[in-house]
Write a structure and sequence with these properties.
The chain is α/β, with parallel strands linked by helices. The protein has 10 helices and 8 strands.
């Protein structure tokens, strides 16, 4: 998938790649928090950094891990046979491999729960247990989430950086490419980009959703209003995180790990 970055974000990633190469031995650690409005773009960036550093990516969904801090939730490490909870399994280092452990937060659990924005929905001890295990981890860990608004971050993270949408002219070209023969005034597109700056991957998704909406209304072509309606709906959507601690978690469930 295509990744287009602003020059300042490219420089951030160059420095991040250097840091990952330096701290990738089994005795060091580097825990980075990446904020990106498009999670898929954040994942692609993490994979690009890993490729640059010669690291294998082990990808996990954060929602699968926060439910597993309870001591009763155990899974068996297929390599060692040792029982551990899902978070320990995700953060472990794999013998014979230099890895980047990637935690993906589609549901904005990090800000809503792990930054204690919704303490009524989670027990304090669960948060403390999560960070205790996080502090014990070694190696490279990236957590990709939506942009963080909090001015303070947990000390367990080495650094937070945000990936912004590409330059407006690049967004405009991508809109024109995906819209194809559909004619929309240039001024209207410029206003759209200024009001809703987004990543290239999001532009493709929005055009596809607008085509579906237009088809359902009996139109074979999408209009500017179709695009704007989808943008408003997606960008204003409030993410409702799942409850911390899923009581239905079964230790025999297979943790969704993607090993690249």
């Amino acid at each position: 998938e295509e990744i287009s970055l602003r020059s300042e974000d490219k420089m951030k990633l160059i420095n991040v790649a250097k840091a990952c190469s330096h701290f990738s031995d089994q005795f060091s650690y580097l825990r980075l928090l990446i904020g990106c409005s498009d999670i898929s773009t954040g994942i692609n960036i993490a994979e690009a950094v890993a490729g640059k550093c010669g690291l294998k990516v082990r990808e996990f969904q954060l929602s699968d891990l926060v439910m597993g801090t309870d001591s009763a939730n155990k899974i068996k490490d297929p390599m060692t046979g040792r029982e551990m909870n899902p978070l320990e399994y995700a953060l472990r280092q794999v013998p014979g491999h230099r890895t980047l452990n990637l935690l993906v937060d589609h549901e904005s659990l990090f800000e809503h729960i792990l930054l204690k924005k919704q303490q009524d929905r989670v027990k304090e001890k669960d948060i403390l247990e999560f960070y205790r295990k996080f502090r014990k981890s070694k190696g490279i860990v990236f957590l990709v989430t939506t942009p963080i608004k909090s001015p303070t971050l947990p000390v367990e993270f080495s650094h937070y950086f945000e990936i912004h949408p590409p330059a407006e002219e690049i967004q405009l070209k991508k809109w024109e490419e995906y819209l194809g023969e559909i004619k929309i005034e240039q001024d209207m597109l410029v206003d759209l980009v200024e009001q809703y700056p987004i990543h290239l991957n999001e532009i493709f998704q929005i055009v596809q959703e607008a085509k579906k909406a237009a088809f359902i209304k009996g139109n074979m072509r999408i209009t500017f209003e179709d695009i704007r309606d989808v943008l408003k709906r997606i960008k204003n959507l409030k993410t409702v995180p799942v409850l911390f601690g899923n009581k239905n978690f079964n230790s025999s469930d297979k943790l969704r790990e993607k090993f690249l």
